[in-house]
Amino acid sequence: MSKFFINRPIVAMVISILMVIIGVVAMLSLPVAQFPNIADPQIQVKATYPGADALTVEQSVATPIEQQMSGVDNMEYMYSLNANNGSMTLTVDFDVTTDPNTDQILSQMRSSQASSQLPSAVNNQGLTVQKSTSSPLMLFALYSPNDTYDAVFLANYSYINLNDRLTRVGGIASVQVFGAGQYAFRIWVRPDRLAQMGITVPQIIAAIQAQNNVNPAGQIGGEPVPAGQEFTYAVRAQGRLTTAEEFGEIVLRAAPGGSIVRIKDVARVELGAQNYSMMGRLNGKPAAIIALYQLPDSNAVQAAADARALMENAKQSFPPDIDYVVALDTTLAVTEGMKEIEHTLFEAIVLVIIVVFLFLQGWRATLIPLLAVPVSLVGTFALFPLFGFSINTLSLFGLVLAIGLVVDDAIVVVEIVEHHIENGLSPKEAALKGMEEVSGPVIAIAIILTAVFVPTAFIPGITGRMYQQFAVTIAVSVIISAFNALTLSPAMAALLLRPKKKSTGLLQRFFDWFNRVFGRATDGYVGVCRFLIHKSVIALIFLVGAVVLTGFLGKSIPTSFLPDEDQGYVFAGVQLPDAASMQRTEVVVKQAEEILKNTPGVKYYTSVVGFSLLSGVNNTYSGFFFITLEEWSKRKKPEEQYTAIKMHLNREFAKIPGAVGFAFPPPAIPGVGTSGGVTFILEDRTGQGVEFLAPNLNKFLEAARKRPELASVFSTALLSVPQVYVDVNRDQVLQQGVPLK
After folding, report:
1. Looking at residues 302-314, what average pLDDT do you find?
2. Residues near 239 by Cβ (< 8 Å), separated by ≥ 6?
3. Average pLDDT, stretch 243-264?
4. When comparing pLDDT for 65 and 566, which is higher?
C-alpha cells in the first residue's frame, strides 16, 4: 500500500485534506458539554390535586399512576414526590441507551391509562408529561432596580412575555418561574355575610363557573334559510369576565320579588396572585427567577447562548425600570474548561514541535510528523457523529494525550527513510525500502495501542459510559495515525527529505552538544540495564518493592467517582421546623442573604422562599439559594476559593437561630441528581404506611451519621409535619342537607 502512495503522493495529500475537511465539518455540528451523555433519561409526570394533603395525593394520585407506569419498557426505577400543596411529581428513570422521545411517548401512554382512576379535580387540572433534568441549566433574574414593580408584576411579566419564548429555544426542555404566582382574581368571602344570607361557598363556585364562561351564540341568517336572505351575521355573547368589577356583579341568588344577591355583597374581589406560596429574590430584592432546564442530549453551551441572545433581544421591549441579569449559568464551567483544554492542546503541540525538531534536527524531517498531528486529531472528529459522541472535557483530554502518540509512527518512518538516505539511496528508493521494513511494526503498534484502550469502552454502567469517549477517541486517532504513517508520511518523506549536510552554525553546535549529552545519558541507562540483567534478584526485589509501595500509596488516597470541583457556583438551603410559616422562613432567608452579601467571592445570590430544590416541592418552611461566584480570574485570594467559600457559609449558617442552614456542591455531572454526593431512597416494602416508615427513617439517619466517611446526612422526607385533622360527622351533615363535597 505504501508503494502506491509513494508513487502517487498527490493521492495521499488529497485523502488527508479530505479527512481534515470532513473532521472540521463534523466538529462544527457536534454538541458541546462538560461530560459525555451519561445521565439516564428522566421523564416527569406532574399532577395537582387542589386542597389535598401529601398522604391523600399519594393514595389517590401517585399510586394509580405508578401502578400503570410499572413495567414500562426500559424503565430502571421510579419515585414520586407528594406535597401538602396538592402537587405530585413522578420521576421515571430509563436506561441510558434509550431515546428520550420514545420514553416520553411510552410514559404518556401509561399515565393516560390511569386517568379513569384519578379524582375529577386532578383530571380537570391535567397531567403534564415532560423530559427534563433535575437541576436548572441557567437562571435569569428579572428585577426592578428602583422598586417600581412588585414581585407579582415581575413574575407575571415573565409568564406572559418570556416563558413561551424561552421554551422555544433549542435545547430547552422546560421553563419554571420562581416567584409570585400568576395573576388571578381572588374572591375573599365574608363568612358572617354568608351565614346571614344562607349562602355556601360551593354555591359561589357554581355561580362563577356558570357565569364566567364562553357562550357560543351561533349565526343569524345562516343556511338553510328562505330565499331572499341577503346577510349572515355571527352572533357574539358575553364570555369570560375580565375585571374585578365584572366578577363582583355575578348573581348568586335572585328572588321572585326582584332582590338580587351578588358576589360583591358577600365578598371582596381583587386582582392578586394565584398563590402566595413562593417568593423570589435577587441579592435581597424582589425578583422573578426564570429557571431553564436542558433537554437531554442537547448542546448545553449553544442552548445557553441562544437563551442569552433571546433575553438580550427581549430587553429592548422591557417596560421602564425592569432589567435582568444572568443569575446562574452552569455552562460557564464548560466554556472555561474548554479554553483551558485548548490552551493545553496548543502547549502540547508546541512541545511536540520542539522535541521532534530537537531529535530529528532538521525542519524537513520535523514537518512530516507534525503534519500527522492535525490530520489524526481533526480526522478523529469525523467519526464522532457515527458513535454519538460530543465535544467534552474527556474527549478533548483524549486528544491531548493522543498528540504524543500520533507522531510516533511518523517519526519511525522518517528515521528509517533518513537511515537509508545516509546509506546512499535516493529519497524515493529510501522510502520504498524503509516502508518494506517498518510497515509491519507500524501496524502492530496501532493494534497494540488500540487493544489497550478499546476494552475500556465495554466497561458496563455509568463508569464505562464516562470513559468510553476518552478511550475510543485515543484509539481512533491512533488508527488514523497509523494510516497516515503508511500513506502520507512515506509520500512526504520521498518528496521532502534530502541527504543531510553538516553545517558549522550556532544551531549545529547546539545539536552537537545535545547529541553528546544524550549519548552519555543513553550509555548510562544501558549500563544500569546491564547491571540489572546480571543481578536479576536485585531487579526483582526492586520491582516487588515498587508494586508494594504503589499499592500502599493507592490505598491511602481517597477515592471518588468525580472530584468536587469549582464549577463557579454553589447551592445552599435553609430548613425551619416543620409547619413553620412563610413569614418565619422569609426572616431566616434575609439573615442568610446578609451572610451571603458579606461573603468574599460571591457575585449573585438568588433566593427562593418556600421551595427546596433537593425535594423539588413547595412548602412554607424551606428556602433555597442559587449562589453564583465571581469569575475564576477575579478570585485570587484564599478566602475567595470555592472550598473556602463553602466552609465559610456552612460555619455562618450554623449560627442562624431557629433553622438549619447548609451549603453544598452542585451535581458533579449535570442531570445526575440535584446535588453533589449520594442520593439514597429508603423503601418500605412491607407497605405498613408512614407510621412505620418514619421511625425507621430516623433510625437509618442516626446510624448513617455515625459513619466517619459521611460528612453530612439529611433527608428531604418530612413524615411528621404537624397537621390539623377535621373529623366530619357525616350523619349530621347529611341530616342538615349540607353536601359532603
Report:
1. 91
2. 213, 214, 215
3. 86
4. 65
Smallest CA-to-CA distance from 191 within 201, 183, 203, 182 is with 201
The chain-wide mean pLDDT, for the chain, equals: 85
Give Cα separations from 305 to 142, 166, 302, 483, 553 (angstroms): 18, 12, 5, 38, 44
Q: Which amino acid is at 223?
A: E
Distance (Å, rounded) from C-alpha 294 to C-alpha 173? 5
Q: Distance (Å, rounded) from C-alpha 682 to C-alpha 320?
A: 51
**CA-based radius of gyration for the chain:** 35
Range name among 22-31, 382-391, 727-736 with the lowest pLDDT average:
727-736
Q: Residue 633 has which C-alpha cell?
A: 480570574
Rounded to whole angstroms, the Cα distance separating 399 from 377 reads: 6
Tracing cell 401517585 back to the chain, one arrives at 62
- The pLDDT value recorded for residue 704 is 86
Q: How many CB atoms lie within 10 A of CB 362?
A: 15
Angle of CA points 652, 653, 654, to nearest 5°: 90
Sign of CA pseudo-dihedral 92, 621, 177, 189: positive
> CA–CA separation, 103 vs 388, rounded Å?
18
Taking residue 689's Cβ as centre, other Cβ atoms within 10 Å add up to: 12
343-347, 529-533, 660-664, range with the lowest pLDDT: 343-347
Per-residue pLDDT of 177-230, as tens digits, reads 887 778 888 899 999 888 888 888 888 988 888 888 887 888 888 888 888 888
- Whether residue 172 contacts residue 256, with contact meaning beta carbons closer than 8 Å, is answered with no
Residue of 446, 499, 485 whose CA lies nearest to 368: 485
pLDDT of residue 133: 67
For residue 414, give the H/E element and its range.
helix 393-422
| Confidence (pLDDT) at 140 | 93
CA gap 412, 16 in Å, rounded: 19
Check whether 740 has a pLDDT greater than 80.
Answer: no
Q: Which domains does the chain have, with CATH numbers?
A: 2-35+335-499 (1.20.1640.10), 40-132 (3.30.70.1430), 136-179+279-329 (3.30.70.1320), 184-221+232-273 (3.30.2090.10), 569-679 (3.30.70.1430)
What residues pair up with 254 in beta bridges, in sequence order? 260
SS3 46: strand
Question: Cα separation of 144 and 154, whole Å?
Answer: 8
